[in-house]
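In response to the reviewer comment on reproducibility (Comment 2.3), we provide here a single inverse folding case reported in full, input and output, so that an independent group could reproduce the run without further information from us. The structure tokens appear first.
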């Protein structure tokens, strides 16, 4: 066993040489930031001030040459080889949120369009999942490795959890969900996870950038903003391929009902009849805003969209601390 001490908080924990450092921190109730837990998103980066770590395989993709020079590591991928002295900012808002493994029953499966399904999971008995709108969970079935899905409803009725799942061609688990999964099946969920949630202490106007089913967690955050009667200005940009991929009418309904909510759908492969925005979703955002220095941006969807959104928003003056994201990295390669 090794000891890991966080210079930023003075807190320490014990870890075995077989566990990822992030797993050790989370299992000791520490609120270290993280996202994909696959080595792609880079959210679990931390500086090693003293001590040695190792990765199981090669250096993960999210670590750049500059990171290596700065002794920056990915805590979700590295294991301790000695006692460690590290620097990580913990997230206060997650302090009282416990990650739990719970059974759940598939209450309802609704086809939302040609390739997106809404799943409602019911947590039985008096149990519920406490989470912040925007977080995700791992969905578990004994025949598959767990897959991450964002929770698409605000935590108002937290024994019902809504997911939006897009069918991936040749995707193992999504094909199972679309073709085999039946209502009343018992599954397990583990969560909540991740640090994609609304920073409620701020009153800055918000730009949401959603790609495909990245709309799910953003829907949860918007439902939460509506539930708390927030007066913050909200601009929701939802990027999809074609009009048929806009699988929910809620954004238009909200924009019609709440003056503070503005909705811009953006189609990258629109057919001739579409009169709205064309192109990639982040391009519409940067066309519409000259200066983002007063804004917060929340982006969720495919990794390439999230990266492009981050780059272009920072170029438009967004403070990097005001950019929050969740990238739908894919955990497993097809065999
Ligand atoms: C934090 C987080 C939250 C997520 N939330 C959601 C969500 O709310 N809704 C949702 O639909 N998905 C979400 N995902 C993605 C999800 O976890 C699965 O990766 C996805 O459903 C594919 O699973 P699969 O088993 O069908 O594909 P796999 O069998 O794992 O993959 C099959 C092949 O397809 C490729 N692939 C996998 N997914 C895609 C894709 N989307 N587009 C293109 N190629 C792909 C893989 O690289 C692989 O080669 C999330 C991922 C993360 C990390
Ligand atoms: S790279 Fe570690 S959580 Fe994403």
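Designed residues, in position order:
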């Amino acid at each position: 066993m090794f000891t890991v001490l966080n210079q930023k908080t003075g807190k320490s924990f014990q870890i075995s040489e077989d566990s990822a450092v992030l797993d050790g921190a989370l299992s000791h109730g520490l609120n270290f930031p993280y996202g994909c837990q696959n080595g792609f998103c880079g959210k679990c980066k931390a500086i090693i001030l003293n001590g040695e770590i190792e990765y199981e395989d090669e250096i993960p993709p999210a670590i750049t040459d500059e990171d290596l020079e700065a002794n920056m590591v990915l805590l979700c991928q590295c294991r301790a080889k000695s006692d460690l002295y590290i620097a990580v900012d913990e997230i206060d808002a997650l302090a009282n949120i416990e990650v739990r493994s719970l059974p759940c029953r598939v209450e309802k499966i609704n086809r939302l369009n040609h390739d997106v399904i809404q799943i409602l999971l019911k947590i039985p008995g008096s149990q519920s999942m406490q989470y912040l709108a925007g977080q995700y969970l791992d969905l578990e079935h004994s025949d598959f490795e767990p897959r991450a899905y964002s929770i698409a409803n605000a935590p108002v009725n937290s024994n019902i959890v809504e997911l939006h799942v897009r069918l991936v061609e040749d995707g193992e688990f999504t094909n199972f969900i679309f073709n085999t999964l039946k209502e009343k099946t018992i599954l397990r969920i583990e969560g909540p996870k991740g640090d994609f949630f609304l920073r409620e202490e701020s009153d800055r106007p918000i730009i949401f950038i959603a790609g495909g089913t990245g709309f799910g967690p953003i829907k949860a955050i918007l439902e939460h903003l509506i539930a708390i009667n927030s007066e913050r200005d909200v601009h929701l940009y939802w990027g999809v391929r074609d009009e048929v991929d806009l699988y929910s009418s809620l954004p238009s309904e909200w924009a019609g009902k709440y003056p503070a909510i503005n909705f811009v759908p953006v189609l990258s492969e629109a057919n001739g009849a579409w009169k709205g925005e064309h192109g990639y979703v982040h391009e519409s955002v940067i066309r519409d805003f000259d200066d983002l220095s007063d804004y917060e941006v929340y982006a969720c969807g495919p990794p390439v969209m999230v990266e492009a959104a981050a780059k272009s928003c920072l170029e438009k003056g967004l403070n990097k601390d005001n950019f929050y994201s969740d990238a739908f990295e894919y955990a497993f390669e097809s065999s």
